[in-house]
Amino acid sequence: MLFNSEIFFIFSLIFFCLWPLFVRNNNTRWIFLIAASFLFYGWWDFRYLSLIIVCGMIDFIAALSMEGFPRYRKIFLFLSLLGNLGILFSFKYLTFISENIKILASFVHLDISLTQHTPEFMLVLPVGISFYTFQSMSYSIDVYNGNLKPTRNVFHYFAYLSMFPQLVAGPIIRAKDMLPQLLKVRPVTESLFWEGTVLITHGFFKKIFIADHIGIFVSAAFANTHVAGSGLYWWLIALAFSIQIYCDFSGYSDIARGLAKWMGYEIPINFNHPYSSISLRDFWTRWHISLSSWFRDYVYIPLGGSKKGFLHGLRNMAITMLLSGIWHGASLTFLLWGACHALFLSIERITRWPEKLNNIPFGHWVAWIVTMLQVILAWVIFRAESFPQIVDILSRMITFQGGIKLGIGEQISVRDFYILTFLIGIVMLRELYFFTRANQSFKNSFIYTKLCGPFALVVLALVTIYFRGTTSEFIYFRF
């Protein structure tokens, strides 16, 4: 069920009308939330609810077993990780690996198809599988590390795991943050309801008005197998995709956080103005915070971080970034994207260029520009359909093939150029505002003092409704 669909509007209207009737009793509240969340997810395909149930039961039982049989907790953690990663691998990577094995086998005239007798059920990528498996695993890992006491109520656990606002595209919530919240009823005050309304309105504005409009141009550009257009044209498209994926994903996160506030719960912020970053390290503390912190806490730190020396730190960081790339999908382009960020981060750590630039006049502006160039170039790799397309596009961008000719009238009309520039400008000006006023608290920022007024919020809502782009699913549904 898409947030930007009519059926979700009906679903949420019914849910929030009934929600007050179920909040007084814990079990009743949890069961109602689970039932609604299963309906929300099952609207896509009810068969795949079994995966959420299996993942959840694996970690629920594993956590209780760790507490009951502490001597064997390593075994139970291993079984938990094996179960979750096995499910994730089977549905997300099996087809990709089998196709590549088939290609390699064809060179020696062998016909090998690992998926020939695989049920059709397993050849479809379930929506949100990367999110709920990681969320479920974090629970058993935290119990193993002694950071969390396991819950003994299965409804309590599944209310946390399946909560519909963030079920299919995050943020990835830690059990230690949500399980205590689910134990009590937090009154939805006027202030809390308003905060939720602001987040939801801004989320829909970013997704429906900005991301969906920009997505038309981006999809048209990358759909052409034969890459055309000047280097400047592709810089514009690359910047457009950078804005699209940010508005699309942060828009989803805003809506999820807003819906949770309407229920009386707090979901951690997932994006903190990433395009105002002055280094890639800074970027990864602001972009998809729930995932980057997940890899930091459950991969980078357990590998040793940088405790064993500088070179070990570089190695562990590279492994973490490569795994982050693979998490996004079974494609060499995602692996290359992770490797690209690992390379840029390594150069940053070795040279410490952001710190050096901060010691010169206007150095922070130079650092911001360099960071954005790296991020935009990496997004081309992330978005491209194939490796040859990556090479073609990046070669045009780096060499500025075609000079400063934009290709208006060929690849993009004058009208579309102005529309695209306007949409990109809205977001970049907002990010630059926070970049130039980074020392002020968020609550004193432009969003709170100006845009969040009732009048401005109504304007955003009307613009979203009457000037919406072509309805499309959220980008991170694919992951």
Can you walk me through this structure?
This protein has 479 residues and is mainly α. The chain folds into 2 domains: 6-185, no CATH class; 192-278 and 358-478, no CATH class. The protein is 67% helix and 0% strand. It has 20 helices and no strands. The longest helix is centred in the middle third of the chain and has 34 residues, at 190-223. The radius of gyration is 23 Å and the shape is globular.
Q: What overall geometry do the principal axes of the alpha carbons give?
A: globular
Count of helix runs: 20
Distance between the termini: 16 Å
Largest sheet descriptor: none
User: Cα-atom Rg, whole angstroms?
Assistant: 23 Å
Estimate the strand proportion: under 5%
String of helices and strands: HHHHHHHHHHHHHHHHHHHH
Number of domains: 2
In round numbers, the mean pLDDT is 85
Output the structural class.
Answer: mainly alpha
Beta strand count: 0
Q: Please bin the fraction of helical residues.
A: 55-70%
Low-confidence stretches: none
